[in-house]
Write a structure and sequence with these properties.
Elements lengths: L2 E8 L5 H14 L5 E8 L4 E4 L5 E5 L4 E4 L2 E4 L2 E4 L10 H9 L8 H8 L1 H8 L9 E5 L6 H8 L3 E5 L8 E4 L5 H9 L4 E6 L5 E9 L2 E4 L3 E5 L6 H5 L3 E4 L6 H18 L4 E9 L2 E8 L9 H8 L4 H13 L1
Parallel strand pairs: 1-2, 1-7
Antiparallel strand pairs: 2-3, 3-4, 4-5, 5-6, 8-11, 9-10, 9-11, 12-13, 12-14, 12-16, 14-15, 16-17
Length: 324
């Protein structure tokens, strides 16, 4: 009997359009002879199943079901394609766990932890994971520009603490630019992390649960046409994403070891994509994403393809791992 799979997409954050693209790629890729697939849009004002004609059917939040033509449909598994809130910060994971419905991403606590850049980096530091020097600000704090610059130097990055797709990130070159960068970050979140600029090769490393084992995918080198790997560089073609990365054997071995250690130390499941910058041969962790982009052009699917894993295999494996 075919399993009913809900592919959740959309969300409450600035990333909702990217999430819709990812979710639709999953929907188009999954084998309809193996699964009954349902596109479920999660927005602040409505949760709906959207059929192929664009007709919307309201999701019953009491049990996460939908009624179509008087028939009640329950889901055996949820494929999580929501970038940002509520799919990457733990809210949907907690809800689905209460409903006893398996889902393809990590659990509630780990989603919340990894979505909070400051907390995630703080948890990993005692395990020897290297990170950039940082300074924290909360909304309402006094902004002591000299203290910030003395701590992290210039240039530096001002980042919204809980946001993805490079929303709320500014590279600051001069003291006079700091206040505006802080304002931009606070537009996305009420917490900020300010980090030193690490001048080195940036790489993205996908790590997934594949056939019951932790698998590190081929490494991608990020070469941005812009000042850093911002939204335009990620989604509007203003970057090169080179897989496999043009790094030394020592750098490759080191970042594979660190990326696997991060995944296993946090006890992650499902997909992850972590970002690193090298200082010499040492990778420094920037952040961990647990619901990375899943379009054909996205980094994780590119890495999987390099490893000989098709989109179909990638997505079906995620479902089968969740159903175990």
């Amino acid at each position: 009997m075919k399993k009913n799979i809900a592919i959740i997409m959309g969300g409450f954050s600035s990333e909702y359009k990217i999430s819709l693209k990812s979710g639709n790629v999953v929907y188009e890729t999954l084998n309809k002879e193996k699964y009954n697939t349902y596109r479920v849009h999660i927005f602040t004002d409505r949760w709906v199943y959207v059929d192929d004609k664009g007709i919307e059917y309201l999701i019953d939040k009491n049990d996460f079901s939908v009624t179509v033509d008087k028939a009640k449909i329950r889901f055996d598994c949820v494929f999580n394609a929501i970038h940002g809130s509520p799919g990457e910060d733990g809210f949907m994971q907690a809800y689905l766990e209460l409903m006893n419905i398996p889902q393809t991403s990590c659990n509630m606590y780990l989603a919340a932890l990894t979505f909070n850049k400051r907390d995630c980096l703080s948890v990993l530091k005692p395990y020897g994971i290297k990170t950039a020097e940082s300074y924290y600000l909360n909304l309402g704090d006094n902004i002591k520009e000299d203290d910030i610059i003395n701590r992290v130097g210039l240039p530096c990055f001002v980042k919204a603490n809980k946001a993805g797709s490079s929303f709320g990130i500014t590279k600051v070159h001069k003291k006079e630019e700091l206040q505006n960068a802080v304002d931009v970050a606070f537009n996305e979140d009420d917490e900020i992390i300010i980090e030193e600029f690490l001048d080195g090769t940036e790489v993205s490393v996908g790590v997934i649960s594949y056939k019951g084992k932790t698998k590190v995918l081929p490494i991608t080198e990020i070469v941005s046409d812009n000042d850093f790997f911002d939204y335009e560089a990620k989604y509007l073609g203003k970057s090169q994403e080179i897989t496999p990365a043009r790094i030394s054997k020592e750098q490759e071995e080191n970042v594979i070891e660190v990326a696997k250690k991060v995944y296993d130390t946090l006890k992650l499941t499902g997909f992850s994509r972590s970002e690193y910058i090298f200082k010499d041969a040492d990778p420094h962790l920037l952040e961990v994403n647990t619901v990375p982009g899943l379009t054909k052009e996205s980094i994780l699917p590119q890495q999987a393809a390099q490893a000989g894993i098709s989109l179909l295999q990638l997505f079906e494996n995620a479902i089968e791992e969740a159903l175990k």
